[in-house]
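User: Good morning. I'm curious how zinc ion would be positioned relative to this chain. Could you predict the structure with it bound?
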Amino acid sequence: MEKVLRAGATGIGEQKFPVDCDSPAIHMVAEVAEAFGVPVLLHFQHETYNLGIERFHTVLEKHPRVPFIGHAQTWWGNIDRNHDQTVLYPKTKVTAGGITDRLLADYPNMYGDLSAGSGLNSLLRDEEHARAFLERHQDKLMYGSDCDDRAGEGEKCSGAQCLAAVRRLAPSKEVVAKILHGNAARVLKISTA
Ligand SMILES: [Zn+2]
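Assistant: Good morning! Here's the predicted structure, ligand included:
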C-alpha cells in the first residue's frame, strides 16, 4: 500500500477480508491512510468480510482524520433500524435510524459508496425513504458502479440504474452533482478545476 501511495494513489481501495471491522489489521490500514491523507473503502458483509459493523464507530472515533467509505450488502442493509443481519438484499420498507444511517449522521469521517446491487437496492427498496436519505446525507454519499459498465444499460448494469435512481430521487440538481461527483472529488482530493 505504501509503495503505491508514494507513487500517487489517491485512496486505499476495497478492504474485503475475513476480519473483524475493528481488528488490528483495520487499525493498521487506518494508520497508513492517515499518514498519506487518503480515504479507505470497506466492504461490509455479514459473517464474511469486516465483521461487527455495530462496533465500527470505535474505529471512526480512534481515527477521526481518516475518511472511511462503507459499501456492500451489510453496509446498505443497515440503513434500516429493523435490519435482519442474515438478509443481504432486503426488499422491505426502511425504518430510518439503522447503524449505517447513524454512522453517516454522527461521524464526519464516515461516507457511503452506492455501488453495485446492494447500493442500488438501498435506493429502490423504499423510494420514499431514499429521497429523505439522499437529502440528509447529501455531503456523504458517492456514486460508484462496480459492474460491467460496457453494458451501459439494462438489468446487468447496476451503475446505469443507480445513476437513474439518484437523478430521480435526489432533491435537486446540486445534490445530484455532489453525489455523482463532488463528494468523491473532495474526499479523494481530485482537482475539479
Ligand atoms: Zn465490495
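The mean pLDDT is 96. Residues 14, 16, 43, 71-72 surround zinc ion (CB under 6 Å).
Let me know if you'd like a different ligand tried.
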